[in-house]
Design a protein that fits this description.
With 442 residues, the protein is an alpha+beta fold. It has a domain at 326-440. It is built from twelve helices and 13 strands. The protein has helices spanning 2-25, 31-44, 49-59, 96-131, 173-188, 191-204, 209-232, 237-250, 266-274, 283-325, 357-365, 406-415; strands spanning 133-134, 142-145, 152-154, 160-164, 259-261, 328-333, 342-345, 349-355, 372-373, 384-389, 421-423, 426-427, 438-440. Strands 1-2-4-3-5 form a five-stranded mixed beta sheet, sandwiched between helices. A four-stranded antiparallel beta sheet has the order 6-10-8-7, covered by helices on one side. Strands 9-13-11-12 form a four-stranded mixed beta sheet. Helix 5 (173-188) crosses helix 7 (209-232) and helix 11 packs across helix 12. The longest helix is centred in the C-terminal third of the chain and has 43 residues, at 283-325. It is elongated and about 100 Å long. The model is unreliable at 61-92 and 434-442 (pLDDT under 50).
Length: 442
C-alpha cells in the first residue's frame, strides 16, 4: 500500500513538472489551454497510472491464450519489473506500525480540516443564494445580495451570478457589463465544477506542495482566460480594467472555493487587460502534439496493462498446465449421462464431469464440438468423469483458465483412450498407437 502510494506520488509529481514545462512553452497562447493543462495535472492525482494499468489488464482478459498442447510444457516465466519504491524497505529507526499510525493521524487531521473549510464555503454560498433576489429581466442569471462580497458565481450545477446590491450604482454601465461578462464566462467554462475537483485533490493530497502550486496556477489561468474572452467580445479594455479596480475598492474579497470571484494575480491581470493582450493561435502542430500526448497518456498505461495482464494470465495458465501434466488422473464412467459437461476447480484438484470424447477432443484443441468428426456413436457415448489430483496447489484457482487443461487432456486421449488425433492431415503429439481417424477442423 505504501509503495503504491509513493509510486503514485512520484508519477504525479513528474507529470505536474511536465505540464509546467509545456505551459511555459505556451505562454503566448490562450490561458484557457494552459488552464486545461493544469487541470489535467490536478486530475492526475486522482487517477493513478496503476488504475489505468489495471483497467487495461482487465480488458486484456478477453484475449485468447494460445497454449498449444505440444508447447505448453516449454513455456517460460514472464519477467517482472521492480518499482522504484521497492528499494525503500524497512530501515532501522521508528517502528513501522507506529510511523504508519502517526502518518495516518496527520493525514486525517489535515484532510478533515480542509473538508470542514470546504463544507463551510458551500454552506455560505448556499445561504447567500437563498438570500439573493432577482436583478431584473435584463439579467436573468444575476442575483442581488446585500452581503459585502465580490461579484461571484455560485453552484457547480445551475450556477448563478451573485452581485452585491450596492455595486451597480458605483460602476458605469460599460464597466458593469464587462464585469458581468467575466462572471458569465465562469459559468460557460464550468469553473466552479473544476475548482471543486481540485479542492478534492487538495483535501486528499494537502501535504504535497505541487498540489497548492497547481491550485494557484488554476486560479490565475482561469481568471486570465475569462479576461481574454471579455476582450474578445469587444469590451473596452480601459473600462474593463477600471471596473475591476472599482470592484476591488468597494467589495471584500471572497476566498471560498464554492464561488468563483474576481481574483488571481490582480497586477498581471490589469496589465494584460490594459495592453489589450490577444493570445496567439495555438496552431496545428501544437494542437496536434497536445492532443496526441493526452491520448498517449491514457492509452499507454491501458496497453501496458493489457499486455502485462495477458502475459500474466499466460504464465499462470502455463504453470497450471505443467502441474496438470504431473497430476494423477482418474477416469470413471459417468453416473449420470444426462448432465452436460462441467469443469470444477479447487486448489488441489480439477474435475471434468460428464464429458464425452468429442467434448474432450474439442477442449484439447480449442474447437467447437461440431468440428470433431468420427464414425459411430463412440465419440458421444459413454460419458466420463475425470479427476486430476495435483502435486501442488494451482495458481489463482479462482480464475482458472480451461486452456491449461489442453496439454493434460491431449496426453490423456493418447495414453488412456489410444486415440490418434489428426489436425490438417497431421498426427498430433503424443500420437495414439491406434489410428481411429478422428479429425478436427477449424
Amino acid at each position: 500500500m505504501t509503495a503504491a502510494l509513493l509510486d503514485h506520488l512520484w508519477q504525479s509529481t513528474l507529470f505536474g513538472l511536465g505540464v509546467w514545462v509545456i505551459a511555459q512553452t505556451l505562454h503566448a497562447n490562450s490561458a484557457a489551454v494552459r488552464h486545461w493543462l493544469w487541470l489535467l495535472a490536478s486530475m492526475k492525482f486522482l487517477v493513478p497510472f496503476s488504475w489505468l494499468h489495471g483497467v487495461g489488464a482487465a480488458l486484456g482478459a478477453t484475449q485468447t491464450l494460445e497454449i498449444q498442447p505440444v508447447y505448453a510444457a516449454a513455456l517460460g516465466s514472464v519477467a517482472s519489473m521492480t518499482s522504484p519504491t521497492a528499494v525503500l524497505g524497512g530501515s532501522p529507526g521508528i517502528s513501522a506500525p507506529l510511523l504508519a499510525t502517526l502518518l495516518i493521524v496527520a493525514w486525517t487531521s489535515g484532510s478533515l480540516w480542509l473538508a470542514a473549510r470546504w463544507f463551510a464555503g458551500w454552506r455560505l454560498a448556499r445561504r447567500l443564494s437563498k438570500q439573493a433576489r432577482p436583478a431584473g429581466d435584463a439579467h436573468a442569471d444575476v442575483r442581488l445580495v446585500d452581503a459585502d462580497i465580490e461579484p461571484s458565481v455560485a453552484h457547480a450545477f445551475r450556477p448563478i451570478v451573485l452581485l452585491p446590491s450596492t455595486l451597480p450604482g458605483k460602476l458605469s454601465t460599460p464597466q458593469l457589463h464587462a464585469v458581468l461578462e467575466h462572471e458569465r464566462e465562469h459559468i460557460g467554462r464550468r469553473d466552479i465544477l473544476k475548482a471543486n475537483l481540485h479542492r478534492l485533490v487538495e483535501t486528499l493530497f494537502w501535504f504535497h506542495p505541487l498540489v497548492w502550486f497547481i491550485g494557484r496556477r488554476l486560479v490565475d489561468e482561469r481568471e486570465r482566460a475569462c479576461d481574454e474572452a471579455v476582450l474578445a467580445r469587444g469590451h473596452d479594455a480601459g473600462e474593463y480594467a477600471a471596473g475591476i479596480l472599482e470592484v476591488c475598492r468597494h467589495c471584500r474579497p471572497h476566498v471560498s472555493h464554492a464561488v468563483a470571484a474576481v481574483s488571481g494575480d490582480l497586477v498581471q491581470r490589469v496589465r494584460h487587460i490594459l495592453l489589450d493582450y490577444r493570445p496567439a493561435s495555438l496552431g496545428f502542430f501544437k494542437a496536434f502534439s497536445l492532443t496526441a500526448a493526452s491520448l498517449l497518456l491514457i492509452a499507454l498505461p491501458l496497453v501496458a496493462g493489457a499486455l502485462d495482464g495477458s502475459a500474466h494470465r499466460l504464465d499462470v495458465a502455463a504453470t497450471n498446465s505443467r502441474l496438470l501434466l504431473e497430476s494423477e488422473v482418474t477416469v470413471r464412467a459417468s453416473t449420470d449421462d444426462s448432465l452436460p459437461m462441467s469443469i470444477d476447480v479447487s486448489a488441489g484438484e480439477v474435475f471434468i464431469r460428464s464429458s464425452s470424447l468429442r467434448e474432450l477432443i474439442a477442449l484439447a484443441y480449442e474447437v467447437e464440438t461440431r468440428h470433431v468428426k468420427g464414425r459411430g456413436t463412440w465419440l458421444d457415448e459413454p460419458r466420463y468423469d475425470l479427476t486430476a489430483r495435483l502435486p501442488r496447489e494451482l495458481r489463482e484457482a479462482d480464475d482458472f483458465d480451461p486452456a491449461a487443461l489442453r496439454a493434460m487432456v491431449n496426453r490423456l486421449l493418447a495414453e488412456r483412450f489410444d486415440l490418434e488425433i489428426h489436425v490438417n492431415q497431421q498426427c498430433q503429439d503424443p500420437c495414439g498407437p491406434r489410428a481411429l481417424a478422428v479429425t478436427t477442423g477449424r
